[in-house]
Amino acid sequence: MSPRHVAPAALERLCAAALERVRAHGAQVADACAESSSAFTVRAHGGSVESLKQSGTCGLGVRAVVGGAVGFASGTDLSPAGLDDLARRAVALARFATPDEANGAPDAAEAGATGPSELELFDPAAIDWAPERKIEMALELERITLAADARVTRTDGASVSSSGGAFAIANTHGVARSWEGTSVSAWVVALADDTGGRQQTGAEGTSVRLGWREEDSHWFDAASGLRRSDIAPSVPVPA
């Protein structure tokens, strides 16, 4: 276990153990997927924090193919007994499903040689980003949006989010992949009034997976972009 989440290699081993059990319970073909991740979102509205969401997950799912029929089960008990129970339930559900000759799993040739771990989707800075700073940035994003144009009198909220974790997939044909990934995003919705009392809306957002740094200026492009065109409505707003 890393300080952030379960390591990708450990998730691969959990998938392999689950596949061993699902085969033991009678599946001809099976695949497993595992995830250990966390996420944080703050939403600012009206100059204050409207909501905070923080979540984490660590679980595994198994898909079993029995006689061409599919059964699926998932859970968070990753002990040997928990994995055995998942495998047993997936196989039992498959026995009640309708067979389809198209049900199966890719072999190594079909899956290809490139794994997600080679795509460099993980940036530790996104995971280590302090919640307090995310809250400050959401509030600042709303302030910048309100200052972008005199016609913008309020917003429908500004949010800043981050997420990241480790993931693994494997099947009984010997295909196995694992990787880490992160994402950081910012989003704001500006509301402008025209002289007829009609409201116009403009929205802008940005998101990155890798190479994120808090000091990068593009994090507030979501607001600065509103100065250019995003609040240009179908009904003109007087200058």
Topology of helices and strands:
Blueprint: H1 8-24, E1 29-45, E2 48-66, E3 69-75, H2 80-94, H3 108-111, H4 124-128, H5 131-148, E4 152-171, E5 176-193, E6 199-208, H6 221-224
Key features?
6-stranded antiparallel sheet; 6 strands; PmbA/TldD fold; 239 residues; disordered C terminus; alpha+beta
DSSP, total strands: 6
Which ranges are low-confidence, i.e. pLDDT below 50, for 5 or more consecutive residues?
222-239
Based on Cα principal axes, name the global outline.
elongated
CATH topology: PmbA/TldD fold
Distance between the termini: 57 Å
**Biggest sheet features:** 6 strands, antiparallel
- The sequence of SSEs as H and E is HEEEHHHHEEEH
CATH superfamily: PmbA/TldD superfamily
Number of helical segments with 4 or more residues: 6
CATH architecture: 2-Layer Sandwich
In the sheet with the most strands, the strands line up as: 3-2-1-4-5-6
The CATH first-level class comes to Alpha Beta
Class from helix and strand fractions = alpha+beta
The percentage helix is 25-40%
Query: Which percent band covers the strand fraction?
Result: 35-45%
